[in-house]
Amino acid sequence: MGFHIAVCVKSVILEAPAEQVIRNEDNSELNPFDRPVLEAALRLKEFYGGRITALTMGPSVSLSALLEARAFGVDREILICDPGLAGSDTLATSRALAAALRKLAPLDLVLFGVRTADSDTGQVGPQTSVALGIPFVGMVQSIEWKQDVFRVKRVADHFVEEYEVKGPAAFTIHPGALVPRDLGLAGIGRAFQGDRAERWNLRDLGLQADRAGDAGSPTRVLSMKRVTKTKQCEFITGDALEQADALMKRLSESGALGV
Amino acid sequence: MDSLLSEKHRIVRRSVRSFCEREIRPIAGEIDREARFPWEVVEKMGKLGYFGIQAPVELGGGGLDSMSYAIIVEEISRASGSLGLCVTVHNSVALYPILAFGSEEQIAKWAPPLASGQKIGAFCLTEPNAGSDASGIEGTAVADGDAYVVNTNKVFVTNGGVADICLLFLKTNPYDDPGEISVVVAERGTPGFVVGDLEDLCGMRANPVSSIRLYDCRLSRENLLGRAGMGLKIGLATLDTGRMGIAAQALGIAQAAMEEGILYAQQRRQFRVPLAKHQAIQMMIADMGTLVEASRLMTYRAAAFRDAGKSFSQESAMAKLFASEACSKVTDMAVQIHGGYGYSKSYAVERYYRDARVTRIYEGSSEVHRMVIARGLMGKK
Fold first, then answer.
1. Is the pLDDT of residue B381 over 60?
2. One domain, residues A80 and A197
3. pLDDT at B160 over 60
4. How far is B69 from chain A (nearest CA, A)?
5. Beta strands B210-220 and B193-198, pairing class
6. What is the CATH number of the domain that holds A167?
7. Between A29, A67, A185, which is nearest B48 by CB?
8. Residue A259 has pLDDT above 60, yes or no
9. Do A160 and A199 have their domain in common?
10. What are phi and psi of A220, to 5 degrees?
11. Which of A125, A216, B188, B282 has the least C-beta neighbours within 10 A?
């Protein structure tokens, strides 16, 4: 018994002032949606045994997310880093992750966060599982291992759905499924002893340059502008009944009420 | 400043801050009002390694360096000065001297429960007639067979009300050599070991500061830390680290006060604009920020010296002196920005203001620090 679990994490950017995305150590952090994923992997490892490999794709600054994962108890970390990967959209990212995951085979489980706090597409988990040709369940709340299959539950449209999935399989973990543990100091100390994370480039992945990065990405981000919200305050006068009528009229005229 | 920190220290800060924001900050006001030691949180802190920050991992500690220690004490104090005090005293003047001067047997016996926070440590030097002048202590440990018979009254013992393992500074040869001061470890529960009433203090109220009294208490001679007569040496070595801890604590309180001051200045409106638009308030914000950052640099410098294996007595003394006095100024300004509300217990700055005051008094008063620093600068002539 014992699983090999791969956890795909991302170092996200906390803020992008002046509409530009420049990543550095001060504005990057492990994606908060990946924390419950790490927790799920750690609990599976504690319960069933096995090992966890954490992967991330990004510039060198992403190393911090991997070190944090190591501090939590991840066994091996891989940074997928190559200038040729710059400008990757979700499809190119999924391709690179799938190539890395193939290299890590045999795997029992591949886990993802449901989305990232900075780009918010929610596409990488499902796309990667398609690229790998393995079953996928999204927004998973619980995972159990029963007679050689994974039993997973998720909540959708007020129904609890239960699936039986054969490994290797990929899941995204619902952010509310588990409360992530706090990081102990001993883990941090351990994470900074010994080897640094492994680095894989395009050649290691066996990916052609035109399948990666900007060249391999069908999506173009044309612009990014901060949304400015304007508030207008209007006082409705009259007695209570008149005020209520006037308010109802305005709300229904604006489409806020379906009456 | 964080831009200059290593990845490890950033992760330390991020993880400790996240814990403190969730577990400590929400109860910090309540435990101060109720003068309650929050065991429920202390237990969690123990499991995370906060009570053995620099102790080896094999002994249940975190195995981290002094820079991490400074950052952790800063972050805990940013949420609660009382808990910051508990952690810094426990780590630097209870656990550290046992690790540095203890025998193998003593380390094996006392370090693991201390490092994991299962037992709390205390440092007992001050007596009614001895404080700044440590050589004036009157407590005695008289050898009698394989035991010491201890009689002493130690006052203002931080963590006193909850401490299980107490380092006592005592005269171990009071009749023949009154200058022989040694450290003897006493465990709560030993017959003759009495915990006095808790002090009713101005600040740091969630820390159970009390007196510890020993009446004809028989302690094994194996409880002697280091050798007889090493007391002042242990005390001085310990206080260098302790002072760095108090500097970090003052820094954390000042940081919290500055953050509250800025937030309030941006929210509160007077003369139709936020307070922050008034130049008089901006001057205070600028001064607060500069004092906090200078405190941080000095504290981290002391830690970096220690991590590099260099002497750091001057550095830690200067950091403690500067950071504690800066903390008083910064918390005072934060109260001033809050106006009448800052004088009310409804706002956290009132607590910061009270907590700040003692950082200029304990682990060496500002005056003692100036003496030490001047002596260091002038040489021993």
1. no
2. yes
3. yes
4. 10
5. antiparallel
6. 3.40.50.620
7. A185
8. no
9. yes
10. -120, 130
11. B282
Pull the structure tokens for residue B101. 């001067």
| A63, A185, A192: best to mutate for the B interface, most B CBs within 10 A | A185
Nearest to A67 among B11, B48, B68 (CB): B11
pLDDT of residue A242: 93
Element (H, E) at B157: strand B147-157
Q: What is the pLDDT of residues B334-349, one digit of tens each?
A: 999 999 999 999 999 9
| Residues A24 and A93 occupy one common structural domain | yes
**B88-127 pLDDT, tens per residue?**
999 999 999 999 999 999 999 999 999 999 999 999 999 9
Mode of pairing for the β-strands spanning A136-146 and A149-156: antiparallel
pLDDT of residue A194: 76
Mutate to test the interface with A, among B5, B10, B47, B65 (most CBs of A within 10 A): B10
Residue B280 amino acid letter:
A
Residue type, A50: G
- Per the structure, the complete domain to which residue A235 belongs is given by 229-259
Task: Supply A55's token pair.
Answer: 């992967």
B59 → chain A, closest CA residue: A186
By CA distance, what is B48's nearest residue in A? A184
* Residue B314 to residue B297: CA distance in whole angstroms: 14
> What is the ipTM score, two decimals?
0.90
Asked if A185 and B14 come within 8 Å (Cβ–Cβ), the reply is: no
Answer yes or no: do A143 and A19 share one domain.
yes
Clarify whether residues A184 and A237 are in a common domain: no
CA dist B363 to A56, B70, B120, Å? 46, 16, 18
